[in-house]
TrEMBL record:
It is a peripheral membrane protein. The keyword Iron-sulfur does not apply. Pfam families: ETC_C1_NDUFA5. Belongs to the complex I NDUFA5 subunit family. This is NADH dehydrogenase [ubiquinone] 1 alpha subcomplex subunit 5. Keywords: Electron transport, Membrane, Mitochondrion, Mitochondrion inner membrane, Respiratory chain, Transport. The lineage of its organism: Eukaryota, Viridiplantae, Streptophyta, Embryophyta, Tracheophyta.
Amino acid sequence: MFLRAIGRPLLAKVKQTTGIVGLDVVPNARAVLIDLYSKTLKEIQAVPEDEGYRKSVESFTRHRLNVCKEEEDWEVIEKRLGCGQVEELIEEARDELTLIGKMIEWDPWGVPDDYECEVIENDAPIPKHVPQHRPGPLPEEFYKTLEGLLAESKTEIPAACSSDPQLKE
């Protein structure tokens, strides 16, 4: 028992460098991660239960916490999580804790149900370097199928669905 408690940490592989400038090796990364993930799960409780942000954070944080509790070797933790080095995971966990505080402060889920977002339409020309994301024309078979379906139901083809693709300029 004594040899396991003392010998295992001494025989564990020691990471010399992360290979990332400015990111130092954390010798007790597993313990730091367990602490950060536990704090994250505690802090996220302030976010309403039905919010997607909370569900997402709880889900991946619980998974990562469980892996850190199950594994003792930093290499195995990195391999099982597949999200980078443990030092990077520590940075991400710290950032997530900061973000949780900001999200609670900003309260994006506090929008009333009857709130209507103002839509601003602007006819200003779009600069050439900005992608337009205009969908290409649909295949001719689509329009033939649509005409056949509409003919069966004896409905007229709406003008926007004619086989001549019309792009609004």
